[in-house]
Design brief:
The protein is of the alpha/beta class. The chain is built from seven helices and six strands.
């Protein structure tokens, strides 16, 4: 990355790279700290050294842990309950210090589940192993994957299953671009339950 900053001049950094599997983070917390904190700080340091003083971090709503109320307010207490959430919180705090000391202005977007594909079909979701609900539901509906598994039916929700929030990748990209110039980006979000998704895909 040093060579990249040496060769070109940048106005800022959009940082999307991270490890993001909550369960895995609880088995490999040190790996998550290294990848999500240390590498983010290295990138921020390179940016500062190059005079590139704008930084947008793709963070996570996992920082809020078990929130006191829904919907979650931006000023809700930060209480991550996983190594993944903690690693993102540590990265955000590092960026706060980079601002105090070096003037690196940052925006951190805290969202839950990104989903969807480019509307022209140029890129889409492809994870290995696949752990995301919507691609799993699509594979189940097409018969190219197993039926959906529902974990937990005793949630305090209308159908008893977990409710998930989703943001389309196009809206999320727009939010990142908006965060470049405003302090609080706005993007559309869709909420659905796991059971509703299973019924929708017929599997």
């Amino acid at each position: 990355m040093t060579d990249v900053f040496d060769r070109w001049k940048f106005d800022g950094v959009f940082h999307f790279a991270a490890l993001s599997l909550v369960g895995e983070s609880m088995q490999q917390p040190l790996r998550y700290i290294r990848e999500n904190v240390s590498n983010t700080m290295l990138l921020a340091e390179l940016a500062v050294n190059a005079g590139c003083l704008r930084f947008v971090l793709s963070s996570t709503a996992a920082l809020f842990g078990y929130p006191d109320s829904i919907p979650i307010r931006e000023d809700a207490p930060l209480r991550p309950v996983s190594a993944y959430g903690e690693s993102k919180l540590m990265a955000e705090r590092g960026l706060e210090w980079a601002d105090r000391v070096h003037g690196l202005k940052s925006a951190c977007l805290r969202y839950f589940n990104a989903a969807g594909a480019d509307h022209l079909g140029r890129i889409g979701e492809a994870h290995n192993p696949e752990t995301h609900l919507i691609p799993l539901a699509i594979k189940a509906a097409l018969g190219t994957g197993p039926g959906l598994k529902i974990f937990g039916t005793d949630y305090d929700t209308p159908d008893g299953t977990c409710i998930r929030d989703y943001i389309h990748v196009t809206d999320l990209a727009d939010a990142h671009l908006r965060s470049w110039t405003v302090s609080m980006p706005v993007a559309a979000c869709v909420t659905t339950s796991v059971l509703a998704m299973a019924i929708l895909c017929g599997r």
